[in-house]
Amino acid sequence: KQEVTQIPAALSVPEGENLVLNCSFTDSAIYNLQWFRQDPGKGLTSLLLIQSSQREQTSGRLNASLDKSSGRSTLYIAASQPGDSATYLCAVYNQGGKLIFGQGTELSVKP
Amino acid sequence: GAGVSQSPSNKVTEKGKDVELRCDPISGHTALYWYRQSLGQGLEFLIYFQGNSAPDKSGLPSDRFSAERTGGSVSTLTIQRTQQEDSAVYLCASSLDGLAHLKNIQYFGAGTRLSVL
Questions:
Q1: How many whole angstroms separate alpha carbon B59 and alpha carbon B36?
Q2: Are A96 and B56 in contact (CB under 8 A)?
Q3: What is the pLDDT of residues A75-106, one digit of tens each?
Q4: What pLDDT is attached to residue B100?
C-alpha cells in the first residue's frame, strides 16, 4: 500500500529565505508526482507535475525534483515571500490515476 | 465552466440526516474524483468516475456513502444517516482522461465543508 510522508509538518521562515520541502513515498512504482498548494478554506492549486521519467520540473521560483528509486521528492522555493504562506501537499499517482496524498507541510513566511 | 464547481460551499446538518454534495467538473473532462480532507487524516481518495461508471470505489468508508454521475458530467456524493465523524471537507477533482496519465492532471474545486452536529 502506497504511503506518502511529508517532512516537516510545519515550517516558519523569514522572508527572502530559500527553503526545501520533503516528500517520500513507499512504493516507487508511481506514474507521476504532483505538488499542490492549498490556502485556508480553498481548494488545491497544482504547482508542478513531474512525470515518472523526469528528474525535475521548474516553474518560476519553484523547483521540484524526483528520485523514484529512493522514493523521494523535494520542492525548492527560492527567495520566499509572505504570499507563499500556505499548506503544500505532495501526491503520487498510482495505477488508475487516483492521487495518494501526504499530510502536507504548513509554511509560514514572515515579513 | 472555467473550473470545477462544488456546492454547497458549506453544509451544517444534524446527526442522522442525509446530505447531498454536488460537483460540476470542467467541461470535457471525462474523469471525476471525490476526496475527503479530515482533520488529522489528510486527504483521502473516495471514488473515481470514468464517464458515468465508477471503476474504483475503494475509498468509500462505509455503505452510507454513495456517489453517482449522470450524463458524464455532474456528480453527486450522498451520505446517509450522517455521523459526527463524517465532518470534513469534501473535494472534487476532474481530469481530461483518468486512464492516460499524461492527461491526468487533476483540477480541484474549492470543496464542501460538512459539519455534522
A1: 9
A2: yes
A3: 999 999 999 999 999 999 876 667 899 999 99
A4: 57
- In angstroms, rounded to a whole number, what is the distance separating the alpha carbons of residues A36 and A52? 17
Q: How far apart are CA A59 and CA A77, in angstroms?
A: 10
Query: For the segment B9-55, what is each residue's pLDDT rounded down to a tens digit?
Result: 999 999 999 999 999 999 999 999 999 999 877 899 999 998 888 88
Q: Cell triple for residue B105?
A: 492532471
Contacts 24+ apart (CB under 8 A), B56-62: B56/A96, B56/A98, B59/A98, B59/B34, B61/B36
Q: Does A61 touch chain B (CB under 8 A)?
A: no
> CA B62, A23, B36 angle in degrees (round to 5)?
20
Greatest C-alpha distance within chain A: 42
A33 touches chain B (CB under 8 A): no
CA distance B31 to B16: 31
Contacts of A86 in chain B (CB under 8 A): none
CB contact under 8 A, A51 and B33: no
Nearest by CB: B109 against A43, A93, A96: A43
Chain B contacts of A93, Cβ < 8 Å? Answer: 101, 104
Q: Which residues of B touch A96 (CB under 8 A)?
A: 48, 55-56, 98
Distance CA B53, CA B25 (A): 15
CB-based contact, B44 to chain A, within 8 Å: yes
